[in-house]
Amino acid sequence: NMDTHVVIMAGGIGSRFWPMSRQSHPKQFLDILGTGKIFIRQTYERFAEFIPDSNFLVVTNANYKSEVLRQIPELEIDQVLCEPLGRNTAPCIAYAAYRLLAQDPDATMIVTPADHYTSNQETFRKVIVEGADFASENRALVTIGIRPTRPATGYGYIQVADEVKLNGVNKVKTFTEKPTLEVARAFLDSGDFFWNSGIFIWSVKTIIDAFEKWLPEIDAQFKSIADHYGKPTERDAIAKIYPECRNISIDYGIMEKT
Fold first, then answer.
1. Is residue 8 a contact partner of residue 40, using CB atoms and an 8 Å limit?
2. Partners of 26 in the beta sheet?
3. Which residues, including other chains, have CB under 8 Å from residue 124's CB and lie 6 or more apart?
4. Is the full-model pTM beyond 0.70?
5. Rounded to the nearest 10 degrees, how much is the dihedral formed by the CA atoms of 212, 216, 218, 223?
6. pLDDT for 229 beyond 70
7. β-strand pairing of 56-61 with 80-83
């Protein structure tokens, strides 16, 4: 499906992996697991098996643009969207959504962090394709869950309802970001909670509707420069609005509320 696009979020500084990960060379550019490939290259290759190169966007800090292009030479310069400063995942996703809206209004977005490791590519691809098919046909925000193995407090948790839709897609009952240890233990014991993987799938129009409803100030900022996306003036327009953007994650800003 030529309307399916991948957005790789690669702007973080990887502070939890310090001292290996540093602001000058963060975790997405490291081979922390000793696999022979850095995280961002693995992420690109994971999706490149079924997504054409022209349908990738990488959102990263302006300081990392040249490194992204060096590690993923298959991309063109205008496929790397540069944030002038970090503002967490909500502005990052809004930027990518509005860029895609300008170039492909019917786009389905697969949003992924740059620092994941996946051992079973066949299963991963099956889940992603099923999620993309569902998101392209339904006005829904699709989130990929991971079966938890311990009561981790650093992840978001997704509680699923009993209702199962097409291709095993479950309706989300609650979405809780980074609970206390006591609450995380209760989630694990219940059996109906998953870790939030940070991989999301939705149509561009659906996520922009969600921004309009739940983060209207961020939506208004990116909408105000609609005439600049994909043009030489885009960089200056982004530089003007980004410092004014609220620093908030997509999890707190939208997922918990929906």
1. yes
2. none
3. 46, 118
4. yes
5. 60
6. yes
7. parallel
Q: What are the tokens at 67?
A: 């490194």
With the CA atoms of 120, 125, 126 and 128 taken in that order, what torsion angle do they form, in degrees rounded to the nearest 10? Answer: 120
Q: Which of 56-70, 126-140, 154-168 has the lowest mean pLDDT?
A: 154-168
Mean pLDDT lowest for which of 20-29, 31-40, 79-88, 107-116? 20-29
Annotate the chain with three-state secondary structure: CCCEEEEEECCCCCHHHCCCCECCECHHHCCCCCCCCCHHHHHHHHHHCCCCHHHEEEEEEHHHHHHHHHHCCCCCHHHEEEECCCCCHHHHHHHHHHHHHHHCCCCEEEEEECCCCCCCHHHHHHHHHHHHHHHHHCCCCEEEEECCCCCCCCCEEEEEEEEECHHHCEEEEEEEECCCHHHHHHHHHHCCEEEEEEEEEEEHHHHHHHHHHHCHHHHHHHHCCHHHCCCCCHHHHHHHHHHHCCCCCHHHHHHCCC
Determine if the peptide bond prior to 52 is cis (ω within 30°).
no
**CA-CA distance, 104 to 97, in Å (whole number)?**
10
